[in-house]
């Protein structure tokens, strides 16, 4: 009896009660279901984040096969006999051809079409950036630069300039700025009132503001040093200012610097300023800011913020400017250099609006009027004296321009001979842009006193512009008998 009881106990231990094991089974089922649900929700959330919430669009399928395998498959497919000629239904095509499978593309009969699709699929796998940095590296600040553009050019393209080869000559420090010219100051004040945005422009950013501020400090220092009877520095409420004794106004020398700083410099002196900064990545000079009241055939608003090399239209006063700025930038002692650029323009003898005389934004505006304006009393020599200097702190290069317009009939003989020599030395493309074919015979005929042809003399006599009582010397315009 005891033996039978012990046997039943062993059998019961081997087969537990189903009522006891049922809760553990339910718990396992619940845990497994919750785990599977979490995996599904996690995968759904990951896809939602990866595709920016667009789970129902047609996703791209990337072909990651190497190029040589794809080319080999294309060659093998072309060797096979063509089973059928399939016509591609172009209107049913989706614009995103990168989603087409390799087998679907192989069904196309045109090999050039397959090649274009494969090329599109290859381009779709290339990395894409959100923005282009424009070549200066600003869009990728974390990417190291192995070698700057200056170092690369110095290593592979060494250049050695001489200032005489660039048409430059030395400039004394005292000849940088002037303020005494009633006609030009009057024209500048009027232009700054009616066309301020055409005369003053600045690229947004701290770089342009710092360069303008540094130039303003140099201008104020120069004026207070050279013209101490009119300009001097003073302090008002612990703030440094430049005092103008003629206008009884004071101008702050501290920041912030911007449009008001450029407007102040444009009103105090009769020179124009252009500030150029060199990019260490591309080694190109960009126009940061400018005060240009007397442009010679170019627009400031279209040039600010762009590099000189990227200009689509030729700017006549800026010929050889990249080479000159590079030469000035490489100098360490920061000397002043200058060069002269000559133009010929016509001015009405009785013109009272000075802005039309000095403010020229188009090359065609150098010649205003008809053929009868090609007379000695209407022809003027427009001489730009361009001065270059480098700012010590920011390293920006400043182009300072002084314009002098003088009638040919009042110029000295020495200046006339120099002007004729320069006009004849212009290259063909520069002479064409400056209009030498139009006024060359009249100007050179007046300077060198060679006789004029019958047609030119008759046209000028017919278009006589002198007022009654004017005594104009016309001995240089002799007519061929």
Automatic annotation (TrEMBL):
Q: What name does UniProt use for this protein? A: Uncharacterized protein
Q: Name one Pfam family in it.
A: HODM_asu-like
Q: What keywords is this UniProt entry annotated with?
A: Membrane, Transmembrane, Transmembrane helix
InterPro entries for this protein: HODM_asu-like
Which residue windows are transmembrane per the record? 24-50
Organism of this sequence: Didymosphaeria variabile
Q: Which domain of life is it from?
A: Eukaryota
């Amino acid at each position: 009896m005891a033996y039978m009881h012990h046997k039943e106990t062993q059998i019961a231990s081997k087969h537990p009660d189903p009522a006891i094991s049922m809760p553990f089974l339910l718990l396992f089922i619940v845990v497994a279901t919750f785990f599977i649900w979490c995996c599904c929700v996690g995968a759904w959330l990951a896809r939602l984040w990866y595709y920016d919430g667009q789970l129902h669009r047609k996703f791209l399928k990337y072909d990651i096969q190497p190029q040589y395998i794809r080319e080999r498959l294309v060659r093998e497919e072309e060797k096979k006999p063509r089973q059928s000629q399939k016509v591609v239904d172009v209107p049913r095509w989706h614009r995103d051809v990168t989603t087409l499978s390799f087998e679907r593309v192989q069904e196309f009969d045109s090999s050039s079409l397959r090649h274009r699709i494969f090329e599109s699929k290859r381009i779709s796998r290339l990395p894409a950036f959100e923005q282009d940095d424009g070549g200066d590296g600003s869009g990728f600040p974390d990417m190291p630069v192995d070698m700057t553009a200056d170092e690369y050019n110095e290593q592979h393209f060494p250049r050695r300039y001489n200032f005489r080869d660039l048409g430059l000559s030395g400039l004394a420090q005292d000849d940088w700025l002037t303020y005494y010219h009633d006609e030009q100051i009057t024209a500048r004040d009027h232009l700054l009132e009616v066309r301020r945005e055409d005369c003053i422009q600045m690229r947004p950013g701290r770089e342009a503001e710092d360069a303008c501020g540094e130039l303003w400090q140099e201008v104020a220092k120069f004026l207070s040093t050279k013209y101490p009877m009119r300009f001097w520095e003073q302090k008002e409420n612990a703030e440094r200012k430049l005092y103008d004794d003629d206008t009884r106004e004071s101008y702050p020398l501290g920041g912030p610097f911007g449009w008001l700083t450029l407007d102040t410099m444009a009103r105090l002196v009769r020179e124009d300023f252009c500030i150029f900064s060199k990019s260490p990545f591309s080694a190109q000079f960009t126009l940061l800011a400018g005060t240009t009241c007397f442009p010679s055939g170019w627009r400031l608003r279209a040039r600010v913020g762009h590099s000189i090399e990227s200009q689509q239209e030729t700017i006549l006063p800026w010929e050889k400017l990249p080479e000159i700025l590079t030469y000035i930038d490489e100098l360490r002692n920061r000397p002043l250099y200058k060069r002269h650029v000559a133009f010929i323009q016509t001015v009405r003898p009785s013109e009272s609006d000075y802005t039309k005389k000095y403010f020229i934004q188009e090359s065609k505006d150098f010649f205003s009027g008809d053929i009868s304006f090609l007379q000695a009393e209407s022809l003027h020599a427009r001489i730009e004296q361009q001065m270059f200097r480098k700012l010590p702190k920011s390293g920006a290069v400043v182009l300072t321009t002084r314009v002098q317009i003088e009638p040919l009939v009042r110029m000295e003989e020495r200046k006339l001979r120099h002007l004729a020599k320069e006009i004849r030395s212009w290259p063909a493309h520069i002479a064409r842009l400056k209009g030498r074919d139009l006024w060359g015979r009249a100007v050179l005929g007046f300077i060198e006193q060679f006789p004029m042809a019958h047609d030119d003399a008759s046209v000028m006599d017919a278009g006589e512009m002198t007022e009654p009582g004017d005594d104009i010397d016309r001995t240089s315009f002799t007519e061929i008998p």
